[in-house]
Protein 1
Amino acid sequence: MIDTQIKKLIEAEKKRQKNVINLIASENYVSKDVLGALGSILTDKYGEGYPGRRYYRGTKVVDEVESLAQERALQLFGLADKSPSSEARGNSISSNWSVNVQPLSGSPANFAVYAALVPQGEKIMGMELTHGGHLTHGQKVSMTGKFWNSILYTVSKENELIDYEAVKKLAIAEKPNIIVAGFTAYAHIVDFKKFREIADASGALLMVDMSHFAGLVAGKVYPSPFEYADIVTTTTHKTLRGPRSAMIFTKIDERELNKKIDKVIIPGLQGGPHFNCIAAVAVAMKEANTPAFRKYALQVVKNAKAMADELAKLGWRVVEGGTESHLLRIDTWRDGKGIGGREAADKLEAQGIIVNENTIPFDTRKPMDPSGLRLGSAPETTRGKKEKDFRAIARKIDKVLRSN
Ligand SMILES: Cc1ncc(COP(=O)(O)O)c(C=O)c1O
């Protein structure tokens, strides 16, 4: 690299990454092949439109790249079938689901779904941020909470888990156009069947945002939402271990939701697809469709559980009482007897453990300095760590947080 300033910074970041224990629940380490595709000359090509239907010339190769990414994404989540009717509908592969691999990241993907399916000012319903929802699930500071009238559900005060009856009551009372299931900081398995029943009872579409647990679904250690959802969005860079990108899966039926969503992505919201990134997604989808990845996903969950158990043993209150996924939250504030999440994260960072401060349900503190921490097991599992290593990490966290 000729640009020595940027080269130096990349080297510095490489060194930083190497020297820390990374417990950021939304991060991971991609393979050399994913990096190779990302850094390829595919970045040079413009191609607004979709395979076979572009506004640009010279797109024969990138058409193949995008079709391959779609095909692999559908295959990975068990959505490829043999019905000739779906082929006739223009899918690159037979499926009753379509997938758009062009969203530039998770937030624009979610925005595109609402823009396509919910008239401005009407209702979207998602989980409250402090309870584990994402900004784009209708929080007031997000455009999704400004352009649409958002209804936010919370978890139960008793056990910090989703209270499906309460969600159902709220949905029936509010009649949202779309309900979002899927979270940023919720550690337990989501009952998609119950969410389907809630959506049906209230006349809403069901969107699952599986950004966080997509890799666990791919690895078959977390239930698949596809049996119940109308739309599934996901980022590709968290447990799925791909580049920073996103996908929108849509059920193909007479409602033609997929066509509406495709039209919002381009020409409605974005311009040229990032083909280098789409190629990297294709690589990651292939990597995730292997026995080695399934083993990885299982280890991710085992490691998160080991860390949660050890922290609980050491006296820390694990939010929701534990985890069934790759992440967990701990309460560091302990009703004023402990320290705030920001101070806790700073202390850990000083000792080489990277986490993020996080709100906990019914948090009395602000999101910038909340009451807890969110810890994830995906990146360090990629680096080969097992349960005993995560128990040791938990002990180190305990020691650092209790030190003065
Ligand atoms: C559940 C969920 N949805 C969407 C997003 C947004 O993804 P991005 O940061 O790629 O915009 C995130 C990111 O953390 C997320 O956790």
Protein 2
Amino acid sequence: METAVEVKHLSKYFDVPAGTLHAVDDVSFSIEEGTTMGIVGESGCGKSTLGRTIIHLLSPTGGQIFFHGRDITDVEGKDLKKVREKMQIIFQDPYSSLNPRMTISQMVREPLRVSRHLPKAEAEQELDRLMKRVGIEKRLYDAYPHELDGGRRQRVGIARALALNPEFIVCDEPVSALDVSIQAQILNLLMDLQDEDGLTMIFVTHDMSVVRHISDRIGVMYLGQMVEMAETEELFEHPLHPYTKALLSAIPTINIHQPMQRIALKGELTSPIDPKPGCRFAPRCPHACEKCQAAQQLRQIREGHLVSCCRAEELQ
Ligand SMILES: Nc1ncnc2c1ncn2[C@@H]1O[C@H](COP(=O)(O)OP(=O)(O)OP(=O)(O)O)[C@@H](O)[C@H]1O
Ligand SMILES: [Mg+2]
């Protein structure tokens, strides 16, 4: 399989009044073509910033971004525009990304005409094809975003993202605002589209059940850093980082014979502003020791399974 997206030592810092906020800090991974990389972690750990930096909605502070082997870290102008068309994003709340004064068909037609320069008749055909793929009926073409329910609004957001024939899509919590019954429909739609088009995806969420359903590989983030990475089932069966174990223990379980011990996290989230070099999770970690004060590196300790905890082997 070919690598579609790769980031090496990617960082995104923000200058804030109190110092430098390390939203994404030295993150490296690659995603194989046609697969989904799930990104999980608590609010504020840098999931959205990571996704947005990869697709150039934000400019990186350091590191490199590769797309099909090509270094796109510093592309500009026309080249950037071309690259950006191949990389789309689907937001949690399509309401904020959809123009409230345009009908949904106008919104999906726009990129077909303006960016793909399709002649009118062809654009109409393509519009119908896209709307059909995402399950939007023709009778809704003249509706405005506020007239649709959340699920249909998200379907329009997906149609708009697909309009430019992207190869890579960042899904930033696309189902978090939806009812659970609708969530499954949208997840299945995304998985079908991926199968049909061979799309590569990043799927950002804080919902462990959702990420298990949709991801091939999962990266667990904590305060800007990747603390664990593995194939989905490997991560769920053999979580190695104490933070991942805590996240998994919070999933409600229906197995009464083997109830999971919920691991309560003590202490507060450390500040992402000018962080100290050691493990950022240590202040809340039940297993923290002296060694955790040193900088931690992601290292492989099971096949294809990377973790940054210095005690991972002994805690297995
Ligand atoms: N434009 C910005 N300026 C300053 N700080 C920012 C900016 N954007 C994000 N941050 C900070 O960067 C950190 C990571 O934010 P980010 O939105 O990427 O987190 P997240 O994991 O997506 O959280 P959530 O689950 O709430 O969406 C947070 O501390 C946030 O306050
Ligand atoms: Mg976010």
